[in-house]
Amino acid sequence: MAKDLKIAPSLLSANFANLSEDLEKINRSEADWLHLDVMDGVFVPNISFGFPVLKAVARISEKPLDVHLMIVEPEKFISQVKEFGAMMMNVHYEACPHLHRVVQQIKEAGMKAGVTLNPATPVAMLSDIIGDVDMVLLMSVNPGFGGQKFIPHTLQKIRELRELMERRGSKALVEVDGGVNLQTAPLLAEAGADVLVAGSAVFKSPDMIETICRLKNS
Ligand code: DX5
Ligand code: ZN
What band does 217 get if pLDDT is binned at 50, 70 and 90? Predict the structure, then answer.
């Protein structure tokens, strides 16, 4: 069992016709954060939800908000993300030609800065930014949809990221997103993940609170 494994349920798989019921359950659970996926139909081939929904969710959620922006030009929205109360703002490496500037701007706005890698982006691309980030989010599926199959190579990437962080003296958290369930969670914890995002495994399970508890004890 990993020490202090954090669980961040992803709202993408919740019941959007009755979000408050699902959010109350998350509030009552052992979840550490709430993960919120914003998609623009450009960076990823899907659209999820935007600021009106995020603001409403923030009013109900008692968990720190971990915002995952799957959008182009995420730097345009730093102040709006801060305004609704995000704790962590994750931007994609692939969406930011001026990543260093974006990371500094997120931190200056008073949020923690996370950098996300798509499955095909090597961990080595973070070599010159790892010292500046609060978290690295490794995608273990191609971003855009919930309920996809876990890509096993992610386990190797976690180990490589840990090595890079060790060399650079980085204390960043390692978060993994996509295909996390009761089978993959122990493998991810063992490989060195600090935070696991879980969408369908939590919201499609018969007992969300129990599933979150079991994931946390992976
Ligand atoms: C996918 C999103 C995920 C998604 C994960 O692009 O970033 O956060 O909700 O869903 P599951 O856990 O079902 O793979
Ligand atoms: Zn996500």
Answer: very high
